[in-house]
Design goal:
alpha+beta; five-stranded mixed β-sheet; Fumarylacetoacetate hydrolase, domain 2; globular; binds manganese (II) ion; 8 helices; single chain; 2 domains
Length: 286
Amino acid sequence: MRLCRFDRDRLGLVLGDEVVDVSAALETLPSYRWPLPYGDPLIANFASLRPKIEALAAASNARLQLSQLALDSPIANPSKIIAAPVNYAKHIAESRADAGINFGSDVKSIDHYGLFLKSSTALVGVAEGVRLPSLDRRMDHEIELVAVIGKEGFRIPRDAALSYVAGYAIGLDMTVRGPEDRSWRKSFDTFAVLGPYLVTADELGDPSHLDFSIKVNGAVRQQANTSDLIFDVPKLIEYASAAYRLYPGDIIMTGTPEGVGPVAPGDEMECWIDRIGTMRVKVRGD
Ligand code: MN
C-alpha cells in the first residue's frame, strides 16, 4: 500500500499515477487530550485504519491525478528524526578528501559517531520544498532511504527489527556545511524532506538491495545501492533503540552515499528509489 498526505492533511491511497481520497478513514482515529502521546496517530493506528482505507478505495470511482496534488510529508508528527552520519564507505572517502565537507575535522565512520537527531520541525513534503537560509555557506543535498517506525519498541534485536518498520519513503537530509554540530546544520526549517508518499513495509519488501539516485537539474549527482550501507536498516534500528525508545512515526534517515553537492535557489532535485518512486523537490531562497 502507498499512502500520501495531500492538499492540507487529506489522506490518499496511491494507485499508480492516481490517488483515491480515503480521508474519511481518519475520522475513526482516537481523539487525544493532554498530554499527547509521542508519535504519529496515523501510524500508531494503522492496523485498524488499513481495512477502512481498502474499503473506501474499493467503494469509490473518483480518482485524482498524483501529479496534480500538493504532497505533504506522509508523516505528520514524528517524535524524532533519527539520522545516520557517514554510513556509506565511499562517502567517508569523499568527505576526507573535500575540505568543503570536513572543515578540517578527521572523518570517521558511523560506529565512531553514533546517530544524531534532526529537529522534527524541519520536516516537509514535496509541495513545500527546500528553503535555503541566507548564509554564506555551502548547502548540500543528501538523498537517503528512510524507514518509518510502526510500533513502540526499546532494545529491539536485529532479527526482529524489520517487523518494527511501518514503511519506507525517500528522504532528503539537507545540510549546511560548516564546523557546527550536525543537529544545528541539518535542522533548519525544510531541511528534512520526506516523500513522495509512504510505501508500506509489506509492499516494499527487503530494503537491503535498493538502487537509488538523485539528479540536480537533470544531472546525476548521487547513485548507489542500499546494499552498500555500513549499518543496514535492521542494525540502525537495533542501534538506535539501544539508546532510546522508538515510537510509531519515528523517522530513520539511513545515511547518504558519495556524490553530495551544493544546491542553489531555482534548482530542482529529482530523487528516485527503486520500488518507491520519484519525487521532485524545488529549492528556493529565503
Ligand atoms: Mn545524511
